[in-house]
Amino acid sequence: MIEMNNVTKTYKNGVNALNNIDILIEKGEFVYVVGPSGAGKSTFIKMIYREEKPSDGSITIHGTDLTTLKEKDVPHLRRKIGVVFQDFKLLPRLSVFENVAFALEVIEESRDVIRKRVMEVLDIVKLKNKARFLPDELSGGEQQRVSIARAIVNYPRVVIADEPTGNLDPDTSWEIMEILENINRNGTTILMATHNREIVNAIKKRVIAIEAGRIVRDETRGTYGYEK
Known about the structure:
The protein is an alpha/beta fold and 228 residues long. Helix content is 32%, strand content 25%. It contains seven helices and ten strands.
């Protein structure tokens, strides 16, 4: 599903964020990306949805070579990738329904398809009863669930979750993890960058650890492995 070969990223200011990364993530895997702040996790994640491009090497997602992908084709790629951010990134003046529907409106889906899909994913994240609420009428955990619903409304093959529990209390974090696990059980590949050692150590999945721009561990059922 995701393959990186000899990927290096050096920013214009000379910062070398990634060094000769080789990785293969299979369809349906659930993978944590861990490491200290500044290790290169965010750059690693951004490469996958083409927010950043490598300085060297190649990245392939489901057969699409991101390094040769034309800019006009990037929006089409992103329809196959759902992204969940730490800070939700919801549109404050739109309702829950409208925030999720927006991802379908930009690709000009029909009104009937939009309503059907939006209500399906709101049911998955247990927010059907709050479809008409505005984001500021929701708790932080509910806002993150809206963000997840928006990420999966196009039925993506991959969901990228960048610190999805970073702004949430422990109980709410476990609720978000339950939703992500359910999505993964239905066949979607999940790649989650996190600093949450409790979750990583309790819900055993593949762990890719990055330090100083290099992969230092890749364990099938790994642990967080860093002191607080």
